[in-house]
Amino acid sequence: MPETDTSRLARVLAAGEFAVTSELGPPKHSGIDDFAETARLLAPWVDAANITDNQTAQSRMAPLAAGRIALDNGVEPVMQITVRDRNRLALTSDLLGASALGIHNTLSMSGDPIHIGNHPDALAVNDIDTLALLRLQDGLRRGHFANAANEPLQGPAPQLVLGATANPMAADTDVEISKLRAKMEAGADFFQTQLCYRPDRVADFLDRLRAADLPSWPRLLIGVGPFKHLRMAIHMRDKVWGVEVPDELVTRMERADDEGEAGKQICIEIIEQLRELDGIAGCHVMAVAWERSVPEILVRAGVRTGTPPIA
User: Fold this and answer.
1) How far is the CA of 212 from the CAs of 154, 173, 184, 199, 217, in angstroms?
2) Which residues of 159-217 form beta strands (DSSP E)?
3) pLDDT at 3
4) Domain spanning 8-226+268-290: which CATH class is it, in words?
5) Nearest CA to 223 among 275, 310, 137, 286?
6) Distance between CA 207 and CA 286 in Å, rounded?
């Protein structure tokens, strides 16, 4: 973890505290009021919030701009960066600008496939892959560009805390650990995962990590999230890549008198189980279109104290 006073998330992770991140999706327009209100809602409860980068390949406000708006409204941003839409020149520009604007945490991603989005005929860029993006950022914070000449910056280097993705639910654990090792060697400081509804699988993954003789222990933020209703549980089970929803959770949602309450309670129980695992750095709470539920979930799970707003 880089020595920096510019990132609350970095300080929390370095101190070994249970970190909490959440997610903020930029709007599909140029207005900021609703986005800013959601940022103010999350600000007292999370250590940072991911600012997504054209998630589901839908055109949205740039995460560089939305990240600054989030910061102005009390939330430390984690700026997601996909290699899908920009080449290394544009990525470098965004990173230098982000640090200048006070945005220091990033998350390197490939990006959802363009064909599922609202511009299916657009061309994907993919000039570099996510490993190269991590190396590019690590080079920048060490004071040089990612070009053949290893050209030095002509001034202050950006202060960056580098995030990457991990998948404890991967079918081939050895391959996933190999990817994780490569990302750490490329400069990754922390990892966030897709939604997890199987804490037992996470425990198994941690056991395999302990046997892998990694150069250091990866800081893992495990993805969690509430089902807002039964339809969401079924969709997550059947349609979302990388998410494994046990049938018993779907059955529990089917039998619930209050689907939203059942979904929150499931999320709370998963957080409680994850906190008992040795080796978890925190959780990444994804409550799509239901961010108001996040404070209540954190309080009821014992991660935060206080009186949350009514979800």
Assistant:
1) 40, 11, 13, 20, 10
2) 161-166, 190-195
3) 53
4) alpha beta
5) 286
6) 25
